[in-house]
Each structure stands twice: as structure tokens, then as C-alpha cells.
Write a structure and sequence with these properties.
The structure is a homodimer. The first copy, chain A, is an alpha/beta fold. Chain A is built from eleven helices and twelve strands. Chain A is 40% helix and 15% strand. In chain A, helix 7 runs parallel beside helix 8.
Chain lengths: 339, 339
DNA sequence: CTGTTAGCGCGTTCAC
DNA sequence: GTGAACGCGCTAACAG
């Protein structure tokens, strides 16, 4: 920068002003500065700016996994917003581990991210309550977090599961099983609660299986149930992984859908409209979740620390029950682009 | 840091030494320092370290899109390697636009990333040849780049397409169409070349359609071809998007696969083994592409700028033809986990 | 409108 | 084995 100043016959301060448009500079002078910057191929050093106590123009994003299309698309949307605001996105994964989450979040703080967007690994007793994190705005999505000031973006988990279950009941099913892969996950719990409410509302027993953690586990379970003649006539899958597992298992065991077993999944899966049968799902607005989270973060970033509200905003996005054939419905519904 | 030093009754330098294990410090003293750091909840400032001319412990990753499962999974693998090395990953998208790519790469440089992993938007005349970028190691994946020094991680595009086309020919097809969505993309070109070679080797005419950019476009095209009675009897889809488009179009138009039209796609798609018919594809080792790219970058990072080779390494990963039913093969092949 | 001074937090170079 | 001073590149505060 000193070189630029020298070449342009000005002080470093003038260069700084030109760069940041922070004050009026004589047009002539500015021109010389621009010229000098061009000649010297000068690029400002972000690290120095950050150190100077200013903004780092970066945000941190922390998701369980990028291999999950849901989180990948959220990250994609967030990045779009960040890009539009001229910010960088530091992205990393927690693998659902609170320790990793904490360590990574800490690490991002040291990097001076101005804000954090994350999928909390646990909704309660989060270690992110630490004093340190008070400096920056945080947005949680997919899963809430018990820190008052944090904004949350969620979807209608209970409501969606309830409607799906009711739909299955409407098809005459009484033996409907809920399939989850992790009893500790908020989304699983919320969706299970919706399922439970729908079942008990009509006096049906709730039947939950929460260890569907792999293709094999699901196949095994199904095989066992069938062996005992206790195969449910309908399933509700708590997320897209389980839906995929179940579809494969059903196929492998030659169980016809929806005749022998109906199913509805939570979260759209690719090609759901091309499978045989086509898949009925509760669709969440994936792209909106990411976009909204990012927008809310940047809104907070515009506020000074003092004027940030005590209590965070909590948005709950609506979900849609996309009726196709796996639930037992006859009519096909025309294809609509997801996300 | 000064506070820590004061509380521990030492100089700032000693604190620094303890932090970086850069020199022997009396065990007693070190203990006091650790204690003080704990009490004050001290965290080193990465920006200052970076400014001081040291390493930023971050890498930049630049992909066309995170909404594409292929790139998302690559990013995931890269992140895993970065995490293992204690590095942050700054991730952003180029949308396939060379201008955006250049701007974003530049921006990452200003952030002092130590290295760059990217999917080049164009393999020739890349603006990344700029002097600036000589400071850091670069790894290109999926698409090569015409800069001698950069490492590349590719897959057998030509070979895979060739084998797939040969397979279709083996099924007796003579009217096989190649479907692409962007004639400017390296991967499309390479796969088309493989297709072309296979066709011309047996004296068959190459038939390429390169504007399959949307669901509608594909359906339109198919409808038109059928109207003229010139529907190909087999298709080779250059990537997973096109495969999905084609499958839907075929389904919508009621064209039976593989009886009326056979197809093979490049790159695995989710649930390919559950579609009717199951999908024959050329599978690329997605996870390996990301992992290898990241490993190569970190290998370069271990070298000093002087000892970095003039010429980059070029790795080409093998692909597999996964035979299922859409090509016309009868036997089902058991499910194997992708990625 | 423009230049000068000072210091952000760290690590390196030199003394002790 | 340890501490003091300098400077990385930048900008907020104050002169001029």
C-alpha cells in the first residue's frame, strides 16, 4: 500500500480512503491512485483489515454433513446470499458431534467470522452458550437451540408428520410404524411427536423404531417382523435416508408398495416421482431454509451489537404433503421442481 | 495476550512460545501460562498470525455449484481432509462463470488462503495464470486446466463413455444418441469423444444433442424426434442431470426402457438401483476425487515454494460401468453403496 | 480535501 | 531459559 501511495504521490491514508470510499477524495487524485493500484497490481490484505478490528467479511457455516443433499442445498443457498453481500463463507462439518461443533465454532471465532449459521447438534445445554459467542450473531436452522438470543429457522416438523400420518390413517391403515435413525435428534423427535399425536387422536397405538441407521438394519428388522407375521401395513419415514433404506429393503424382500405396505417419507428424495411406485413425501422448502437463515444473519449483521434484540426471531416454514402413489393414492401428481 | 503474560508473570514472548511449542519453556512457567490462558479464556487471534506473514491455516475451494450432489460430496471429502489437518475451508461457487471464478479466487487470495482446490470453468486461457496465483499451490479436479504447475485429478471420461457406448452397441443398437447440456464443458467434450470413438470404430454415425439444459428441452426434443419417426433406440447421457431429465421425459412420453429406448448415464444417481428399470451408469469414484485432491494440496503445502515442482501431477481415476437394466441387460446387479 | 501518528495482536530478532 | 522492541498492512483519530 505504501508503494501505491508513493507511486501516486499521496499518503497511504488517501489510498485507504479511495479503497473504501470512506471520504471524498479529489477526482484527479483518486484517478492517480487507481492507476497506481493497477500498475502495481495491488490487492488489499484482508488479514490486516480484520486485525485492525474491522469486519472480516466472512461468516461461518456449520452443518452435520455435506454428503446429505438437504444440508448441501442449504449451504448452497447460504453461499448465494453471502456472495451477494460480498462475504466469504467458511464451511465445515460437525458430524453431529457436540464436541466437534464446539471446537469448530471456536475455531471460526478465532478467525473472526462476523456471524455463524449452524445446525445445532443438540438443542439443549449447547456449549455455544459460552461468553465468547455473545460477540457475534448466530442463526440456527433445522434444529432449534436453547439460547434466547439466537434466531431459528425451522420447518413444520410435527405438523407435517401429523398430516402424513393422518393421511395414512385415512387410507384405512391401523398398523403404522414410525421409522427413525437417531432418538437424540430434534427433527426425529418432533416428527415422531406429530406421528404420535395423529395416532393417539384416533386411539391407535404408536409404534416407533428408532435404530434404522443402515440399509442392513432396516432389512433385518423387516425380515424379522415378517417372520413373526407382524409386518406393519404402513410406514412413516422420518427423513430421506430412512426413506431410501426402506424402499430398498421393501424391494429386496419383494414387499409390494403400496399394496402390502404403504409409505410416506419426510423430505423429498431425488427421483421420487419416477420410482415405482412414486413416492409420497412431506416436502420441506430446502432452498428457503438456507436463504432465510442467511438473510436473517445479514440482517443482524447490519445492527450494532447494542441494538441486537434480547430474544431471537423464530421462523417456522410450512411443509407440503406431496401425494403420489406410495401412500396408496391412485392418481399421479404432475412433476414439480423441488428446492 | 499481554494480559495472559501479565497474569502469568512472564513476557508475551513466553506465551507465544508455549502456544506454538516453538521452543523449550520451563515446565513450571508453561504451567502458569496455561493456567492464565484458561482463567482469561484466552484465544489466539488468527488474523494477527496471518498478518504476521505466517500461514493462514485455510484453503479455498471453488466449485460450480453445491446443489449438484457430485460437487457437494467432493466438497465434503475435501473438508474431511482439511479438518484432519487443522485447516479451515473457505468454500464458494463459480456457477461455471470464468469471471466469477476469477473474482472469487482473487478474493480468496486476499484472504491469504494457503492453497486452492477448484473445478476450472474453462480448461484453456484460464485467468488463473495470473502472477498472483503463483504464490500458492492449486489443484484442479473434474476439469483440467492449462497451467503446467497445477495438479489435476480427473476420471476416465473418454474411456468410460467409450465402454458404455460399446456396451450399447453390443446390445445391437445402431442408432445411439449422445446427450449433453453444454458443449463448452470439458467433461462433456471428453465423454462425447469417447462416444464418438466407439461409434466410428464400428462405422456408426455419431449423433450428438448438446442443448439438454432443462427437463422441458429434453421432452421437447424427444417429442419432435418421435414425431418424425426418428427416435434413437439408445441414449448415452453425459451427466447425472441429463440422465434425470431423460428418465422423466421418457416416462412422461410413455416410452418404455429399455425396450423402446435403452440408456446409460455417466455418474451415479441416487436410487438408480430402485428405478424401473434400474439404471446402468458409468460410476466415478466421487469421494476419492475429493479426498485425493485435498491430499495432493496438503502435500504441496508441506513443500516450500522453491521445492515445488515445475510440472503438476495428473491423476486419472478409473470408472466402473455398473450394469443394471436400463441398457438392456437382464440380470440385476446387487446394490453397492455409492460414493 | 489530504497527510501524520498510533496501534490492532502476534512472532521474529536480538539482547539479557 | 526469558524479555523488549520492532513491524506485518491497515485505518480511526486527529491535525493541516
Amino acid at each position: 500500500m505504501a508503494d501505491v501511495a508513493r507511486l501516486a504521490n499521496v499518503g497511504t491514508m488517501t489510498v485507504s480512503r479511495v479503497l473504501n470510499h470512506s471520504a471524498h477524495v479529489n477526482a484527479e487524485t483518486a484517478k492517480r491512485v487507481y492507476w497506481a493500484m493497477e500498475v502495481l497490481q495491488y490487492r488489499p490484505n484482508e488479514a490486516a483489515r480484520t486485525l485492525r478490528g474491522l469486519k472480516s467479511r466472512s461468516i461461518g457455516v456449520l452443518v452435520p454433513s455435506l454428503a446429505d443433499p438437504f444440508f448441501a442445498i442449504c449451504a448452497h443457498s447460504i453461499n448465494l446470499v453471502a456472495q451477494a453481500n460480498g462475504y466469504s463463507m467458511i464451511l465445515t462439518t460437525s458430524h453431529g458431534d457436540p464436541e466437534v461443533e464446539y471446537a469448530q465454532a471456536q475455531w471460526m471465532l478465532q478467525r473472526h467470522v462476523e456471524g455463524l449459521i449452524l445446525v445445532p447438534t443438540q438443542s439443549q445445554n449447547s456449549r455455544l452458550q459460552d461468553r465468547h459467542f455473545d460477540r457475534i450473531p448466530i442463526v440456527a436452522f433445522d434444529t432449534p437451540i436453547d439460547i434466547k438470543r439466537v434466531d431459528c429457522v425451522l420447518v413444520e416438523n410435527q405438523e407435517g408428520a401429523l398430516r402424513a400420518t393422518q393421511h395414512l390413517i385415512g387410507h384405512g391403515h391401523t398398523n403404522i410404524q414410525f421409522l427413525g435413525n437417531d432418538a437424540g435428534l430434534y427433527t426425529i423427535q418432533a416428527r415422531m411427536e406429530g406421528y404420535r399425536r395423529a395416532m393417539s387422536a384416533v386411539g391407535l397405538p404408536a409404534l416407533a423404531k428408532l435404530d434404522c441407521t443402515s440399509q442392513e438394519a432396516v432389512t433385518q428388522e423387516l425380515r424379522a417382523a415378517r417372520g413373526q407375521g407382524k409386518l406393519p401395513t404402513a410406514f412413516f419415514c422420518a427423513n430421506n435416508w430412512i426413506t431410501k433404506f426402506l424402499m430398498r429393503s421393501l424391494f429386496e424382500l419383494g414387499i409390494r408398495v403400496p399394496d402390502q405396505a404403504a409409505l410416506i417419507g419426510f423430505d423429498e428424495v431425488e427421483m421420487a416421482d419416477l420410482l415405482q411406485p412414486t413416492l409420497t413425501v412431506v416436502r420441506q422448502p430446502i432452498g428457503d431454509v438456507g436463504t432465510l437463515s442467511a438473510s436473517m444473519l445479514f440482517d443482524s449483521l447490519k445492527l450494532s451489537p447494542q441494538e441486537r434484540p434480547e430474544e431471537g426471531i423464530r421462523k417456522v416454514l410450512t411443509v407440503d404433503l406431496i401425494l403420489r402413489a406410495s401412500c396408496g393414492c391412485k392418481q399421479a401428481v404432475p412433476y414439480r421442481q423441488s428446492t
